[in-house]
Amino acid sequence: MAGRLEGKVALITGGASGQGRAAAMMFASEGAQVVLSDVNEEGGTQTRHMVTENGGQAVFTAADVSVEADAQAMVEVALKTYGALHVLYNNAGTVGIGVDARVTRLSVESWDLIMNVNLRGIFLSSKYGIPALREH
What we know:
- The chain has helices spanning 18-29, 41-53, 68-82, 108-135; strands at residues 9-13, 33-38, 57-62, 87-89.
- By secondary structure, it is α/β, with parallel strands linked by helices.
- The protein has a single domain (9-135), classed as 3-Layer(aba) Sandwich (Rossmann fold).
- It has a four-stranded parallel β-sheet with strand order 3-2-1-4, with helices on both faces.
- The protein is globular, with a radius of gyration of 15 Å.
């Protein structure tokens, strides 16, 4: 029996670890061809390897979802590699690393990073991903 995502292409942002890695494994086990993106190249490569070791298909592309050119490029990787995009999983996010998130102690730089990844990243990924989703 074919998996629920057989013949589908899924782009997962933040695919290097945690929930993104788990989603990659699950989507691949259901037959999806997986495109992983993350700023963590080592983790992204490990996730790709885990997917392919288990019989799935995956590629990894290093991308910072808060950078417009990177967001556009990761969608292009999906289209060039697999010819389509059917699933966009906006998983990338951050709470900052070693950050005291109390508003009176949070630096402006940490705030900007959190907002850029968590909000701008979803906007940019969707801006370039949705047209590809609509085509397929």
